[in-house]
Amino acid sequence: MKSLSLWNGSRCGIVLLYLVAALVLSSCREPGQTTTVLHRPKGIWDTAGGVPRSRALLPDKWDTTVVVGRSETDTALIDPFMLASLHDTAVVFDFGRSALAAFDRAGQLLWRFGRKGYGPGEFAQVRDVKATPDGDISVLDMGTNRVTIVRPDGSMRRMVTLAESPHADQHLPLQNGRTMTATLEAPGTFAFFDSVGRPERRADFPWDEFPKLEAIERQGLLAREGRSNRWVDLLMVGDGWYSYEGDSVLPFTGRFIEHLDFPSLIVTSSRSPGRVDRKVQVPRASYGAVGVALQDSVVAVLFEGTSKEADRIIDYYAWSSGRYLGSSILPLKVANIAAASGRDLFAVVTQPFPRLMRLHPH
Q1: In sequence order, which residues have a C-beta less than 8 Å from that of residue 61 and are 6 or more positions away?
Q2: Residues near 334 by Cβ (< 8 Å), separated by ≥ 6?
Q3: pLDDT in tens, 107-137
Q4: What is the pTM of this model?
Q5: Complete DSSP assignment for 35-61
Q6: What is the DSSP letter of 254?
């Protein structure tokens, strides 16, 4: 099971079954400690009484055209996860080095940028990496509460400190140097900042039940198509996603082909003089969407779910309508994806050793 803790660069978490969790919580309970099971909404889409949906597999075969990291002793990548693309250049954040690494279409290293720390050109607690509309790379670092913009040649363009910024796990670089962050707060989930980091406004997630969720259930994924103003926001748990054009949400609610309810949560509260601690646990695997790429108005969703093909499934949807277009099975489990040119995908693989791959469907 994977814990829905705040996003920290990996989806690995505490592995607990309901029964084990109940036994542990009952046997370890301390004086002043209470435990509650919260039953959650089914999601934006509720399948009660609905027609079961099944995947339609496309006849795709996938070729691996580029591989970076060919063995356990290869140190090109140590602990990669977050991934962005500049057309045919893959840019990955390597947590093992606290640095960005860029690779060309042949898999050759172009540059590295960054190191661990809090100063200029350093990273402390990176949450997200995205391409900007201007063709740069933007890194959201909540440890320093700033965004670092890196040029395509690997040099730093600028750093922007986000004033009054709440915790955010995703961000979207906007036109004219502006930034939007996706926080775990509700209302006011989306926080907008100008080019020097001053707050502009807040906007709500377009689902009325969203504020009723626990913060760990509000995790989402953002992706934009190239340098356009088309983007998507996907829930990582539950069932639902939205398409946007600029600041406007399109008039439909996306539905995943594989439905997942929001998980029940185990909440443990401990009281001591002058203090109340509250711990939230998810006692089973509950992730749906774990990666997303938007290319040619098609939303490609890397899906975990409950299938035996978890983390190999790519489900395709029309950005403009949410219509399901079919699914494809990758040749191996991957941790994250980004759009390359055509229908190609860049993919990060973490097991049994770290790799960056370019996959080509035919």
Answers
A1: 361, 362
A2: 291, 302, 311, 312, 347, 348, 349, 357
A3: 999 999 999 999 999 999 999 999 999 999 9
A4: 0.87
A5: EEEEPPP--SS--TT-------B----
A6: B
